[in-house]
Amino acid sequence: MHIHHGSGRRTGARALAVITAGFAVVALGACSLDVDNPTMIEDADLDNPDAVPAIAAGVAGDFAYAAVVPGGGGVYVAGAMLTDELVHVGTWVGLRGLSDGQSRNDWVESQSRWSEPSQARWVAEKAIDRISALVEDPQTNEYVAQVTHWAGHANRLMGDAFCEAVIDGGDLQPYTVYYDRAATYFTDAIGITAAAGLEDYRLSAIGGRAHVRMMQGDWAGAVADAAEIPTDFVFYQVHSTNSGRENNDMYWWGYLRSEGSVWGTPFAEWGVNLSDPGAGGDPRVQYDDSGDTGGDGRRPFYRQRKYRSYDDDIALVSGTEMRLLEAEALLHAGSIGPAMDRINEVRQYHNATDGYSLPDLTAATIEEAWEILMRERGIELWLQGKRLPDVRRWMVSPGYVPFEVVRAEARGQPASADPWVNVLDAQVITERGDLCLPVSKDEIDANPNF
């Protein structure tokens, strides 16, 4: 049975306001836990048990907003452009830079790409303390369980995307600090969600910890966690059309506005072009040829068709992702056959559930198996914010990524002359060759520890 967080639970997650005995608490908007504007709500008014559901909903909303809205599509769009999921074909300078393989801290977009995920992390962590002080038994409370779970994912998100870590105005630290914090919050959340009877949140926390352990190189721990997640499990971050803040802006940047194109990516080769479906391809990646160039007037605009509205939810943790994690662990151990079995289990699952006709795959060598794994993980998790940490991880082990993407344009020539380069051909502002998003210049200028 598919488990969909969001379907059937959207009323609570998307509520705009909770009316209490004389004040309104805005939920799923910017849930600030310290309120300074007396015309809206006093900070002390949040110290009310009636405010707890709204605080928890706001924490979830802040995460979803940071993922796909600020700075030209949030962390997810930035990661898609910096890797090989999308190519920029528009006029948005901050996105063209990422697509060209650059990642600078002084772009306007870099400021909110950093500040909003940082705020989402801070709000989630503070919400744990705030709600715990308002309920009778925090260790069994459903809202403490939820926000602790989101604190894990918020730290995980920042570890996946950023080059370094800064915690609440402190010193510059390795980005792995976010993973250490995420693991702690996920472990706490697993216990509290179990006590509160929130099985979907518990599995999401376990899956989040599996991802973190994988990124930390703890493959035994990652596999142990992944084994607990059923293949048909999906936990979604919820989006809606209630306000621009709640939108899934993957739809805006990759479909409505001609900025992010599937053209120039390996996914155009792997997927199904709905403008020519007879050509075949993997139906997990769907796009169409708009017939027009993008906003730059030269590159073709191939529209992603995974997200077809602002209120399409995005998978945060899935069982199919866990099967591919297990496959990768097996490849690290040199076990080609068992790794391919896990990959084929995912393909067979989609055949049975979605009516696809994906054939089983085989690999004769470890190199061939790695390429299949990297492609399958890309297809399965396309535009879900996982490609950037995947490519960062593969840069270290096995030490290569065999895919090419179009980056900088061939000036004075048609788009067909734009060169394809290896996806690892990218630089951050420090020219280290890392694939990551930098700490923003605003943070650097304002933080006395820099």
Give a nutshell description of this structure:
This protein has 450 residues and is an alpha/beta fold. It contains 16 helices and 16 strands.
Task: Reconstruct the topology from this structure.
Elements lengths: L2 E3 L4 H4 L3 E3 L4 E3 L25 H17 L1 H13 L4 E2 L4 H7 L2 E2 L4 H25 L9 H20 L2 E3 L5 E3 L1 H21 L2 H18 L2 H8 L6 E5 L12 H7 L3 E2 L4 H5 E3 L8 E12 L6 E5 L9 E5 H14 L3 H19 L11 H15 L6 H10 L7 E3 L13 E3 L4 E2 L12 H6 L4
Strand order of the largest sheet: 1-8-13
Low-pLDDT residue spans:
1-40
Helix fraction, binned, reads 40-55%
Question: How large, in whole angstroms, is the Cα Rg?
Answer: 21 Å
With helices defined by DSSP (H or I, 4 residues minimum), what is the helix count? Answer: 16
What structural class is derived from the secondary structure elements?
Answer: alpha/beta
Using the alpha-carbon principal axes, give the shape: globular
Q: How many strand elements?
A: 16
Please report which band the strand proportion falls in: under 5%, 5-15%, 15-25%, 25-35%, 35-45% or over 45%: 5-15%
Largest sheet: 3 strands, mixed
Question: How would you describe this protein?
Answer:
By secondary structure, this protein is of the alpha/beta class. The protein has helices at 10-13, 52-68, 70-82, 93-99, 108-132, 142-161, 176-196, 199-216, 219-226, 250-256, 266-270, 319-332, 336-354, 366-380, 387-396, 441-446; strands at 3-5, 17-19, 24-26, 87-88, 102-103, 164-166, 172-174, 233-237, 260-261, 271-273, 282-293, 300-304, 314-318, 404-406, 420-422, 427-428. The strands form seven sheets. The protein has a three-stranded mixed beta sheet with strand order 1-8-13. A three-stranded mixed beta sheet has the order 10-11-12.
